[in-house]
Write a structure and sequence with these properties.
220 residues; 4-stranded mixed beta sheet; Rossmann fold; binds adenosine-5'-triphosphate; alpha/beta; transferase; EC 2.7.4.8; 9 helices; binds ligand LQESDW3C; single chain; 5-stranded parallel beta sheet
């Protein structure tokens, strides 16, 4: 994995008065990010998922515009150079990036947003949007991680080996996260995520900004 030294196009003009919640879900491949995020989105229709662009080949069943925006490397690089991405990274040999315009629009509307990205992207977003909540998902063990990747049966052996090797690097960045969720029992992990989202919605800034009349009554 190669982290870009800096992203000269990532200046975000509209962050200061953002009153929504932004969650970044980060985990080694196979830990269960997508499964958990999909369940969280179903449970909480107010939450919006950031659709990443990638140069990776679609897996069987994956759809352009639903799972990812699948683009060629040439298109990705051209878009990156035009400032299309708020963050981007090379992960497992492919490029991935988050749309700057989409994030700006959600922030302007005060929407709650979830991003499924790697640690390199999380570090970049954290610098631009300090209010973001970084959630790291742990698998219960490396053995379980490997078993999940194999059982998913969507990657060839070389890809699985690449992802297991990258898992060690990804795990070294867990301490940078605000929250850790252990995805052993799926339902428990999902409950943990719901609680984190609920706590994020109770941050003092947004709550106070949304209740000026209450604050006046209380003399605050
Ligand atoms: N708690 C769990 N117990 C057992 N299996 C699980 C659990 N959570 C997810 N899985 C399974 O593990 C596999 C990997 O999950 P998923 O695709 O969500 O991982 P991911 O972190 O999004 O991986 P990637 O980064 O490669 O997209 C899937 O087959 C999923 O059904
Ligand atoms: N920095 C970013 N990382 C991203 C983004 N979208 C996905 N990812 C991460 O890539 C790996 C591999 O994903 P996969 O779908 O090929 O298994 C995983 O860690 C994702 O979280 C993004 O926009 N930016």
């Amino acid at each position: 994995m190669t982290a870009p030294k800096h992203n000269p196009h990532s200046n975000l003009a509209i962050a200061p008065d953002y009153q929504g919640s932004m969650l970044m879900i980060v985990a080694p491949s196979g830990a269960g990010k997508s499964s958990l995020v999909n369940a969280l989105l179903q449970a909480d229709p107010a939450l919006c998922l950031s659709l990443s662009s990638t140069t990776r080949t679609p897996r069987p069943g994956e759809l352009d515009g639903k799972d990812y925006r699948f683009v060629s490397k040439e298109v990705f690089i051209a878009e990156r150079d035009q400032g299309h991405f708020l963050e981007y990274a090379e992960v497992h040999g492919n490029f991935y990036g988050t749309s700057r315009i989409w994030i700006e629009a959600q922030m302007k509307m005060g929407r709650d947003v979830v991003l499924e990205i790697d640690w390199q992207g999380a570090e970049q977003i954290q610098k631009i949007i300090p209010e973001v909540q970084w959630i790291f998902i742990f698998p219960p063990s490396l053995e379980a991680l490997e078993e999940r990747l194999r059982k998913r049966a969507q990657d060839d052996e070389a890809t699985i080996q690449k992802r297991l090797a990258a898992a060690h690097i990804e795990l070294q960045h867990a301490h940078e996260a605000d929250f850790v969720v252990i995805n052993d029992h799926f339902d428990q992990a999902l409950e943990d995520l719901k609680h984190i989202l609920a706590a994020s919605r109770l941050r003092s800034g947004p709550v106070m900004a949304c209740n000026p009349a209450l604050l006046r009554r209380l003399g605050v």
